[in-house]
Design a protein that fits this description.
Length: 224
């Protein structure tokens, strides 16, 4: 997701704070990283960037989806990077799947790995990836090695290390990062607060729900 997804929300805070809308390497218009990165690599690079900003008495991280993965790494390993964080549609923990779903996924992976032994790299291999890969994997293009590295991570340990005030927001209809992930994050992050907004999904949480989300963030900022 590019920085523009947060532009409308950032405008609502124009009279309260300075907002920065960075794009991670390989996202939006930013070139990909020099090698396949994990979320710790992204956090290290982001921490270095944060050091270049003007000092602030209070700094709050607001992240959506992948941005929440990076936020968890930052909060765990760079506890002074910000004084509070908001996780929206948070990713970072392994999804809980039914036995049937786990079996189906395992079969798809096994079938793909078997078939690609007989298909050389090129258009036919790409067609095979398109048939068996997830929609995110299909869209990843040259970022696929990074995508695979990131989605295989489980940031449970990092979440348990977080000490800064944390607000967690998700939509009740989010199927990309279901509410059960946000509930587990709430249980892992001491003192965190969870808000589930009824009727919104992973993307409408930043669109149709942005006024509700902005109100929750403002209240969170006031409490810090």
């Amino acid at each position: 997701m590019d920085a523009g997804a947060f532009a409308a929300m950032a405008n609502t805070f124009a009279n309260m704070a300075t907002s920065y809308l960075p794009e991670f390497p390989g996202h939006g218009q930013t070139p990909p990283p020099p090698a396949p990165w994990g979320t710790r690599d992204y956090a290290d690079a982001t921490a270095a960037w944060l050091q270049t900003l003007q000092p602030a008495t209070k700094r709050i991280w607001v992240g959506h989806s992948f941005g929440c993965r990076v936020a968890l790494q930052l909060a765990a390993h760079y506890p002074n990077a910000f004084q509070g964080m908001v996780l929206i549609g948070a990713a970072g923990l392994k999804r809980k799947r039914s036995l049937a779903n786990r079996i189906n996924n395992a079969l798809r992976v096994y079938t793909f790995k078997t078939l690609k032994l007989f298909v050389p790299e090129g258009p036919k291999r790409d067609a095979l990836r398109g048939r068996f890969g997830s929609s995110d994997y299909k869209r990843a293009g040259i970022m696929r090695p990074t995508f695979v590295k990131v989605v295989s991570e489980d940031l449970t340990a990092e979440a348990a290390m977080v000490t800064c005030p944390t607000l967690i927001i998700c939509g009740s209809r989010d199927t990309e990062t279901p509410p059960e992930i946000s509930r587990r994050l709430e249980s892992l992050i001491k003192g965190s607060q969870l808000q589930i907004l009824d009727g919104f999904d992973h993307y409408s949480i930043l669109g149709a729900a942005r006024h509700q989300v902005s109100s929750l963030i403002k209240n969170f900022m006031d409490r810090l």
